[in-house]
């Protein structure tokens, strides 16, 4: 059923947004995300998609319009990259606090400086604590599928949260791959029409907004926390239904590759997992028992799943494609989360961070070899030589 197309990540996103039958799209250009809006504007102009396409005067306006449209009951889509993501920062907490399931594509780009057009995750991960569901796609196929899955999860009455649908700039956004496009009837079965709770309606006036009495604050924060935790079983249900309807099976939170007998693993998210798979095959030929653990959702963070997965290995190399200056252990954002997840596990692996892909650079096979060699030494010695390595700058 369906067809196969050769699409970039941006093309896959636009196709999924069209099949999701969105109502309101808001745009403002900043590469590498811009292409998705070019495609969607053509779809609307050609009559292929019946949606309101609004070109805003900046990213803050993009998200403000999406906020209002979602609050009124529309299925909305927007997006940005790099400094465009940070320009709209003020809007993120009010959107999640209003329980408005806006979906936003982030095609990652390095923040200024250096602002390079490439695959660094700091722009999106800087927004990780704003109450939005967040995760990365590795391929254009996963981009297409995640777009539908995120709408399904975010719009569920038990969740009602916005979603950062992330993929790596250039490496996924602009490099095409095979994408299986399903029948519209399959999408309609998986993703029902959006049914908002308490939408803005002139016939039924309601109060919406972030300005509240001080003693109400903790209650609303607890509501968002509970909604994020409620997303865990909803994600599992959505992934099960997705596999049944579309025939493509995903692990809900953590995907493993060649880990059955692995002693060492690369822990990673996003497009560089694609290169890691090739590296693992080469390393296996040399007798190094290494595997891959790819996390699919950063928010909600799957603590229990990671405890079960990572406690089986001797050493874990957290591949960080982001920066957080002055953070615990002095590396990126993911390693402290991994360490925190494993704190209560009796059998803990040794963990080191490897900073790579910064400034939009690729992580090469040679650099994955470097990671594997360091992990092997850590496992053999039972000691962490140093908590953080900067790929390309160390021997």
Quick rundown:
This protein has 395 residues and is α/β, with parallel strands linked by helices. Helix content is 39%, strand content 18%.
Q: Examine the secondary-structure arrangement and name the CATH architecture of the largest domain.
A: 3-Layer(aba) Sandwich
CATH class of the largest domain: Alpha Beta
Q: CATH superfamily membership of the largest domain, which one?
A: Thiamin diphosphate (ThDP)-binding fold, Pyr/PP domains
Helix amount, in percent?
25-40%
What is the ordering of alpha helices and beta strands? EHEHEHEHHEHEHEEHHEEHEEHEHEHE
Instruction: Please name the CATH topology of the largest domain.
Output: Rossmann fold
The helix-and-strand class reads alpha/beta
Backbone CA Rg: 21 Å
Count of domain modules: 2
> Which strand order spans the largest sheet, edge to edge or round the barrel?
3-2-4-5-7-6-12
Distance between the termini: 51 Å
Q: What about the largest sheet?
A: 7 strands, mixed
Output the number of helix runs: 13
Low-confidence stretches: none
